[in-house]
């Protein structure tokens, strides 16, 4: 009976409480952490690209409206151009025949429709002919249509 009691004490000595994690628990925890980090970094990169697209579209609309207002108020014509490198150029005439060029390159995920007009003139009276400008996004798979109304050039945005 003493031998049985001694074995019982030995089992109690060997089963002392653990002070750390096992290797398996550590590897599982590290795997979960890496997975969460990877997903969040991917979403952050996607968020930055979407934000850049949104800022470019807002800049385009604001600058277009500003060019119309400038032409009307100063009685100098303005020009809107799209070059082959997806750069938007606003050529705004000023007094003394000086021109001010405002340029911005679209993000690499955006491009103008091939059928879009490459050059658009705003007369010195602040009026222009109607036109539709189409920008495609490969990131969001959306097409942004900007229709400029006849006369005062109100720009209307349509997402498809």
TrEMBL record:
<keyword id="KW-0812">Transmembrane</keyword>
<dbReference type="InterPro" id="IPR045584">
    <property type="entry name" value="Pilin-like"/>
</dbReference>
<keyword id="KW-1133">Transmembrane helix</keyword>
<protein>
    <recommendedName>
        <fullName>Prepilin-type N-terminal cleavage/methylation domain-containing protein</fullName>
    </recommendedName>
</protein>
<keyword id="KW-0472">Membrane</keyword>
<feature type="transmembrane region" description="Helical">
    <location>
        <begin position="21"/>
        <end position="42"/>
    </location>
</feature>
């Amino acid at each position: 009976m003493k031998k049985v009691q001694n074995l019982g004490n030995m089992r109690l000595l060997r089963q002392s409480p653990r002070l750390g994690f096992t290797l398996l628990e550590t590897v599982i925890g590290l795997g979960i952490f890496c997975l969460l980090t990877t997903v969040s970094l991917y979403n952050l990169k996607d968020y930055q690209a979407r934000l850049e697209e949104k800022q470019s579209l807002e800049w385009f609309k604001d600058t277009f409206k500003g060019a119309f207002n400038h032409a009307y108020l100063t009685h100098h014509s303005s020009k809107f151009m799209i070059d082959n490198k997806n750069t938007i150029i606003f050529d705004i005439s000023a007094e003394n025949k000086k021109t001010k060029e405002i340029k911005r390159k679209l993000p690499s995920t955006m491009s103008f429709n091939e059928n879009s007009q490459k050059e658009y003139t705003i007369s010195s009276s602040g009026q222009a002919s109607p036109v539709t400008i189409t920008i495609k996004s490969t990131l969001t798979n959306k097409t942004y249509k900007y229709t400029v109304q006849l006369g005062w050039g109100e720009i209307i945005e349509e997402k498809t």
